[in-house]
Every structure is written in structure tokens, then in C-alpha cells.
């Protein structure tokens, strides 16, 4: 699956997007974030507080407990503010 990173998440991780193949036990957005966080210091810095990370699965907003099986694209981004 393709993971897209936006704003300061992209800056801390160092890439805008990547193809990943998480293990089968990674079934939800929250588990994916945990798995990504373990991939290195940039991921740890970007994903250390999952409450500050929003997600979209195939361009639809999703919560941490949303299933990722079959997803082609997952976007991770900070909360968006308007004004």
C-alpha cells in the first residue's frame, strides 16, 4: 500500500510517500501508526503522539480503529484548521 505523509509529518520522516507492506497483524490505522513508529527515529518523532495524526484511507477520513485491509492508499497528516 502507498502511504502519503503531509506537512510536518513529511518533514520529520523525510519522504512524501512510500510503498509499504505491513505484516498481517497490522489491521487498523492505529496499529499501522505503531508499526511505522518502530521503523526509525524520523517515524518516531513524527508519530510519537498519535492524537496529533489524522488519517484518510483511499481519500476517506478514518479513525484509529478503521481497518486498513485492502486499502490502496493511506494518507497521514496533522489536524487541519480553518479560518
Q: Count up the helices.
A: 3
Within the largest sheet, what's the order of strands?
A: 2-1-5-3-4
Outline the biggest β-sheet.
5 strands, mixed
Give the topology string: H per helix, E per strand.
Answer: EHEHHEEE
Radius of gyration: 12 Å
Shape: globular
Indicate the proportion of strand residues.
15-25%
Task: Give start-end ranges of low-pLDDT stretches.
Answer: none
CATH superfamily: Beta-grasp domain
CATH topology: Ubiquitin-like (UB roll)
What's the mean pLDDT score?
A: 95
The secondary structure category is: alpha+beta
Report the strand count.
5
CATH class: Alpha Beta
Distance between the termini: 33 Å
- How much helix is in the residues? 25-40%
CATH arch. level architecture: Roll
Number of domains: 1
Structure report:
The chain has 83 residues and is an alpha+beta fold. The chain has a single domain, classed as Beta-grasp domain (Ubiquitin-like (UB roll), Roll). It contains three helices and five strands. It has helices spanning 7-13, 29-37, 41-47, and strands at residues 2-5, 17-19, 54-57, 60-62, 73-77. A five-stranded mixed beta sheet has the order 2-1-5-3-4. The longest helix has 9 residues, at 29-37.
Amino acid at each position: 500500500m502507498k502511504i502519503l505523509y503531509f506537512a510536518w509529518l513529511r518533514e520529520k520522516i523525510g519522504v512524501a510517500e512510500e510503498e509499504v507492506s505491513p505484516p498481517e497483524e497490522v489491521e487498523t490505522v492505529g496499529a499501522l501508526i505503531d508499526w511505522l513508529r518502530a521503523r526509525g527515529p524520523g517515524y518516531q518523532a513524527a508519530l510519537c503522539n498519535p492524537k496529533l495524526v489524522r488519517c484518510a484511507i483511499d481519500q476517506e477520513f478514518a479513525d484509529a480503529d478503521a481497518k486498513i485491509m485492502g486499502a490502496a492508499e493511506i494518507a497521514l497528516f496533522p489536524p487541519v484548521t480553518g479560518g
